[in-house]
Design brief:
Length: 261
């Protein structure tokens, strides 16, 4: 089974890869088949061969000592008396910021990019993330401020921070406010395709430049199979560039992280 899953993933990467900037493996899908050590390394290697970044959808978050272990597992190494044990080799990963700044610190210091959950794409996000705080504003807005603060000292030459934010494409009405709160943050934009989000509605994400938004589509590409994945990815890329041009953000920041799928 592991061999079949790895082969399927490699074929999808080969088909969609020319139209993408990164792959985003969902760790839960590999964990449930006990594939973190058997399948996922093959997927990471296939992405590397295609020149793609590896963004692990992990959503990790815990107290600092555990967060340190997560950081090593996702993007670092664990040193033992018997030598170093390499982690999964992520270029970036998603993380849950609800435990606060001290719990985020080890993840932010991992050397990889970190995308903090700010306003997620699932319908239930409104149950908690849209709640109004006693101090004013919604909870997701407080998380946006946390993401902006966390990345303030991590802005690269392209003008964008290596601390990003997950901002769901299914609630585009929040994007203008999110961009105002996080002007130098790369947005990871899940929810396009199977969840009903539309790339055409995401233009505010690219206000700082076309590197500022990463459209992610999983089921719509995977379910197209190796034969159709390339076409789906190409169409999403085209729609993303058109939305970026509509936002007037194509030339303001060099595309060090060009948006794709």
């Amino acid at each position: 089974m592991h061999r079949a899953v790895a082969d399927h993933c490699r074929r999808l990467i080969d088909a969609a890869g020319p139209h993408c900037v990164a792959v985003k493996p969902q760790l839960a899908c590999f964990e449930r088949i006990r594939g973190l050590d058997t399948v996922l390394p093959d997927v990471v290697a296939a992405a590397r061969r295609r020149g793609l970044l590896v963004l692990l959808d992990a959503k990790r978050g815990d107290v600092p000592v555990t967060a340190t272990a997560y950081a090593a597992a996702l993007a670092g190494v664990t040193r033992t008396p018997f030598g170093e044990v390499p982690g999964l080799g992520a270029d970036a990963f998603t993380a849950n910021p609800l435990l606060g700044q001290d719990a985020l610190a080890p993840l932010l210091d991992s050397g990889a990019g970190v995308f903090l959950l700010v306003r997620t794409s699932n319908p239930g996000a409104a149950d908690v993330q849209d709640l109004e705080l006693a101090s004013g504003g919604a909870l997701w807005e407080a998380l946006a401020r946390l993401a902006a603060r966390s990345g303030a000292e991590r802005v690269g030459a392209c003008g964008l921070s290596d601390v990003g934010a997950v901002v769901g494409a299914t609630a585009p009405e929040h994007l203008v406010r999110a961009r105002a709160l996080m002007p130098r943050t790369i947005f990871l934009l899940p929810g396009v395709g199977a969840q009903g989000g539309r790339v055409e509605d995401l233009a505010p994400a690219w206000a700082p430049g076309r590197a500022a938004g990463l459209v992610t589509a999983s089921r719509s590409i995977a379910r197209a199979g190796p034969g159709g994945a390339g076409g789906v990815a190409e169409e999403l890329k085209r729609a993303a560039w058109e939305a970026a041009e509509g936002a007037g953000g194509v030339t303001t920041i060099a595309p060090a992280w060009p948006s794709g799928t």
